[in-house]
Amino acid sequence: MSVEDEYAETADPAASPLKHFGSEVKIERERLGMKRQTLGKAAHCGYSLVAKIEAGERVPALAFAEACDRVFPHSNGRFVRLWPLALRYAFPPWFRRYVELEEKAIGVRMFHPQLVPGLVQTPDYARAVLRTGRPTNLDDLVTARIERQRILTREKSARLWLVLNEAVLRNAVGDAELMQGQLAHLRDLAEDPAHRVQIIPDKGRHHGWASPFGLLSFTEGADVVHVDGFPKGYVLAEADDVARAQDAYDLLKAMATPPDESAELIDSISKERYS
């Protein structure tokens, strides 16, 4: 079930974008006399997931929408067009505006003192982090988080600049194998010419920034700031707030090791901490 509770529990396909998507899948599948197993095979998933998507109980991945457009004649890309609306249903209402902005960004700068940010988490790491909140829709939350990462791999990808405390690499989330996979992913990002990863070494002194935050840049329009918080994060667009965040981010970059040393440092901590 989605995190959003503003819709009543109902079989009405108009109740939410998620239920509408599922209803359209079911209509097209039944029109062809196709079994759920057959659609599942085409979409590389099982009967159970197809049934849950059709019932509006699971958020589909983009690959599922693409499979529907391949399998159903005359869909003309309808399911890929519907997919962003269905995906939004997995995010809390307060986070949706940020996701919309993130999708349009050409530059993403992020800082986190404790955890690997969601935009660069592996599926296993994301699941382990999200599970701590004991959500009822864990699978949907993981799907939505991983799908956000497409902005880093699309044809005109957003450029990522990531600054992390060294503690992020040492804070174990899950088991050693999970952390090895996550750090390997960070290492790959650090060596990708399109992106930058910097680590602030732990020298036993607090640098003054405890809250995760990030900045989004666009082809047109001013930057915006996103600040993580409990129970909700928030977006800031006032010029003074953006300027202060930009200055803070510049200082954090100056405290961090150079980007071309990040891969070696990540490898070193991975071997020391998780081998």
Question: How would you summarize the topology of this molecule?
Answer:
Layout: H1 17-31, H2 36-42, H3 47-54, H4 62-71, H5 78-88, H6 93-104, E1 107-112, H7 123-131, H8 138-148, E2 159-165, H9 166-170, H10 176-191, E3 196-200, E4 213-217, E5 224-227, E6 234-236, H11 239-255, H12 262-274
Parallel strand pairs: 1-2, 2-3
Antiparallel strand pairs: 1-4, 4-5, 5-6
Helix pairs in contact: 1-5, 2-3, 4-5, 7-8, 10-12
CATH topology grouping of the largest domain: Endonuclease, Chain A
The fraction of residues in strands falls at: 5-15%
Record field, number of beta strands: 6
Largest sheet strand order? 3-2-1-4-5-6
Counted up, domains total: 2
Structural class: alpha/beta
Indicate the percent of residues in helices. Answer: 40-55%
How would a crystallographer describe the biggest sheet?
6 strands, mixed
| Rg on CA atoms, Å | 20 Å
**Average pLDDT number:** 92
Q: What is the correct CATH architecture of the largest domain?
A: 2-Layer Sandwich
